[in-house]
Amino acid sequence: ALESIDFKNALEQFQDLVEKMIVQKTKESSGLYTKDDDEIDYDKFSSTTRTLFGPAVKDQNIQAFFRKVMSNPDERPEWPEIFGCFTGERDGMSSPSEESMVLLVSEKRQITHSVVKRKDIIKGIVKVPLLHLTITASQRGVLTVFNKQRKSFFSYSFYFLQDTAWITGCDYLPNLKYVVAVTESTIILWDYKSKESKSYGFVIKPMKNCLLCVCTVTMADNLAKDTILMGDDKGYVYLLTITSDDFIMKQSKTGKISQFKILDSESFDIPKRKLHDDWVGKIKYFSALKRFGSCSTDSINSFVLDDIKRLEDQLPVKEFSVPKGVNAFTYCGKAKVIVTGG
């Protein structure tokens, strides 16, 4: 039984086994390898792995791991892959008795309701825990709100707003009770609760640079306003505060598109600051830290973590560099750590 095995020791032995395989494959490629009794073929790799980890590993994961090492020893796989983590989706779900005894993965639930058309992809998923809602945004303009049972609560297509622009991100405005989404050139505010036959909302346009991501700044107050952060393709981060009065005072003379009224972006005070020298890949506000984070593939200004006030002044920001930049990040309050992925 795996419980009786010193997992750390077993893992070290497994990693030694993989290193020997890589050395063997490298020598074979250079013509310097001579077969002997220590040769590691698939049968030996499989039996050794099963001896080390027992029933926690499955045949298909052993085969996939072995193929990856043999086909490209320079790009060695990570050890969690031997337990089925980070591999492709498999049909069906494992029963609890078949779960990995080392890394427990929660069961997946599939939403069968089709919310996007063919050749469309989901660009954003946001959970709203207090309201038990999940919001999705597709690249070509479909916003969908799901209720607690993951059934489609309401879905709306913004193809008529798009022209050639794609939706690049979404979030929820908790005070105004709107869904916010950004495209390459506009900001969409959708009143998903509207009972009209055609949905109601606002479009803020034009935006000079291509918007790539958006997030809500969650505050403790219950005022009729919300603040959002956005990142663009020039490395800028924007700060935009929207109140219910803006919906009345700042409508454009050009009228509306369908039931969506146009708000002139020039009428808003939108502070921005260039924090990166490349695209802003993700932006997030951490209420527990009272700080926002933004990341970029920029190798110099890869990750920024600071107060939103820094977007309205020119004081130095807290940042650090990572070769080839940062693509994703998250914060764990229990461990009090921020993790980045490059």
UniProtKB/TrEMBL annotation:
SUPFAM superfamilies linked: WD40 repeat-like
InterPro entries found in the cross-reference section: WD-EF-hand_domain (IPR051242), WD40_repeat_dom_sf (IPR036322)
Keywords: Repeat
Entry superkingdom: Eukaryota
This protein's name: WDR64 protein
Provenance organism: Sylvia atricapilla (blackcap)
